[in-house]
Amino acid sequence: MYKAMMSLARAMAYIGGAVLTALIVLTCISIAGRLLNGFFHGDFMQGLAPGFADWMIAIGVGPVNGDFELVEAGVAFAIFAFLPLCQITSGHASVDILANSFPAGVNRFLRMVTEVVFAAVLILITWRLGAGLMSKYANGETSFLLQFPVWWAYAASFFASCVAALVGTYMAYVRVYEFATGRILVWDGVEVEQ
Predict the structure, then answer these.
(1) What does 42-71 look like in DSSP terms, one character per residue?
(2) Exposure on the CB side of residue 58, measured as CA atoms within 13 A
(3) pLDDT tens, residue by residue, 107-148
(4) Domain tally for the chain?
(5) Is there a domain that residue 87 lies in?
(6) Minimal CA–CA distance to 122: which of 79, 93, 91?
(7) Taking the model in full, what pTM does it have?
(8) Whole-angstrom distance, CA of residue 130 vs CA of residue 133
(9) Is 54 domain-assigned?
């Protein structure tokens, strides 16, 4: 089961990485277009080569229309896409100043409680995101500039959050089992063997 969950988490991270890379490229193109547009509208280019400057403006050199709408939708998906890998590898930030001095049993208990709470929060987020998806789908809301249905972004994020909730629930089960039996099923470098 662990290998299947790890494969699923990695696949989501790769997809999230591809989306994030595309958003970075989109943002760079949009910023470069915005700078060039300002340059071609400027006094220097209008004085030096007004025909060329006007031609560049006319062919559409400028920012990408609706770039912030695409970034907003894509980043939400990417965040949820990275959560499963972070969850299964214990990649979340933690402060272990006191926990390092606790016995292994106490640390297993704390890890179990943390994983159970995290799984519950992921399930709650997924549930509310699903409700938001249904609401956006029902009212037909669209984005301001691109006019794409807002529910598309909700659907992508909902899918990724379902995977995150599934992996989070699996890890909660693993940590409950580890606490109850004293056996470590998923080694991630955080635990200390007794």
Answers:
(1) SHHHHHH-HHHHHHHHHTT-SPPTTHHHHH
(2) 6
(3) 788 888 989 999 999 999 999 999 999 999 999 999 899 899
(4) 1
(5) yes
(6) 79
(7) 0.82
(8) 5
(9) yes
